[in-house]
Amino acid sequence: METFAYENKNARRILALGPESNGNFSVFQSGKIYFSEDFGDLMEDANYLKFKKKISIFLKEKKIKPDIILTDSHPSYRTTALGRDLAKKYAAGHILIQHHLAHIFSAIGDKRISDDGYALPKDFFGIAIDGTGYGSDGRIWGGEIFKFENQKLKVKNIKRIGHLENQIMLGGELAIQEPARMLIAILAKFLSKEEIYAHIKKYYSAQEFEVLYNQSQQNFNCIETSSTGRILDAVSLLLGFCGNGRNYKHEPVYLLEKNSTKPYADLHPKLQITNYKSQTNSKLEIQNLKHYVLPTTPLFEYLIENLHKDSSRLAATAQLYIAEGLYEILCHSGLGLESGFFAGGLANNEAISKYLVSKGVYANKKIPRGDAGLSFGQIIFYLSGH
User: Are 104 and 343 in contact (CB under 8 A)?
Assistant: First the structure.
């Protein structure tokens, strides 16, 4: 366990259980945050049992009886169910925290422990990009920008000011394991059935493709997502850097980044403005407002038109497109870029991260940017609003 001094007047004892992948937990008591190691994927029983045992041992050794249990807002996570059980056991409150808000606040907490005396500005924003996070509107998020108001050292208002264009996960979570499902759904927006099959026929038979294509047209078992990870998965597949599967988390994105060279300079994002209405499951409400959408379909139109070019340069172009699009949304926020925070599993992508950090946005230095730092972010989010 790592221990960080974190000055806060909150007298409650808080246990945060983090996500389901890269399992980790954090505890706050008397101005200190105890931060655990990464237990790996908690869907694996051995990891989950070790995770639960370590929590029990730690609480007993420190003689801590939690007053508040924090979990991810995803209703199906093992950590969410465990949070409910522990809340009953300790007669504690159970609070759900949206995945990407926890990511952003992990960066805020990282800034605080890295820069003693740092105080949040009156208004600030956060960017969270990753593969999967349960959104407060029931969709799968993963390319998010929020604006926050800081009133008397408490975060009171949260506004989702932008995100990546929603695309379809064909077959739901199967699209995580088979990037070609994402590619089919995206290409179906501007190519004919025959043209789509030409790009994915190495992965599916004509009969299998027929089923998937009809599924996309009928919107059957299709989930909307703004995930940066799913977009870059599909790019990696289209450019030939990964197969239609994965051996480890973020493999297609890693291979895309590994094979990137110098981007082309002829693709620039054009934002769309739309309306958004949603509420989060925490005590803080995500406000209703007009917000910006970074279209990702034009990225694929560009790639299809230029597949004859250097694939390594196209890979770099795709990542730069995402980085520039996020930056454009920030420019419309009216805030200085030095008041921005950046986290999430894909904040480890060097191409995107390097671009945003060069513009003044802060990214984690001590706490992991991905799910392995999420419980820490849950603690910081709670302390920032209570």
Answer: yes
The continuous run of DSSP H or E covering 59 comes out as: helix 45-62
The number of residues making up the chain comes to: 386
User: H-helix or E-strand containing 93?
Assistant: strand 93-97
pLDDT single digits (tens) 110-121: 999 998 778 888
**Cα–Cα nearest to 28, from 39, 42, 41, 13:** 13
List the domain boundaries for the chain: 2-117+369-385
Vertex 257 angle, CA 98 and 35, to 5°: 40
Number of alpha carbons in the 13 Å side-chain half-sphere of residue 338: 3
Q: DSSP secondary-structure letter at 214?
A: H
Query: Left if phi > 0, otherwise alpha if psi is -120 to 50, otherwise beta: which for 172?
Result: left
Rounded Cα–Cα distance for residues 361 and 341 (Å): 6
For 298, left (φ over 0), alpha (ψ -120 to 50), or beta?
alpha
Q: How far is CA 138 from CA 132, 224, 247, 280, 281, in A?
A: 12, 9, 28, 10, 11
Q: How far is CA 123 from CA 107, 120, 147, 161, 264, in A?
A: 16, 8, 7, 13, 35
Position 291: which residue type?
A: H
**Nearest one of 89, 93, 40, 38 to 71, comparing CA atoms:** 93
pLDDT computed for residue 277 by the predictor: 55
pLDDT, tens digit, 9 for 90 and up, residues 67-114: 999 999 999 999 999 999 999 999 999 999 999 999 999 999 999 999
> What pLDDT was estimated at residue 122?
85
Task: Give me the amino acid identity at 384.
Answer: S
* Ordered DSSP codes for 116-162: TT----SEEEEEEEEEEEE-TTSSEEEEEEEEEEEETTEEEEEEEEE
Written as one letter, the residue type at 258 is K
The CA distances from residue 117 to 111, 112, 354, in Å, are 10, 7, 26
Place of tokens 């029983």: 45
CA angle centred on 314, ends 215 and 144, rounded to 5° = 60
- Which two tokens mark 14? 């808080």
The class that CATH gives domain 2-117+369-385 is alpha beta
239 Cβ contact list (under 8 Å, min separation 6) = 256, 259, 303, 307, 311, 314, 315
pLDDT-derived band of residue 336, with 50, 70 and 90 as boundaries?
Answer: low
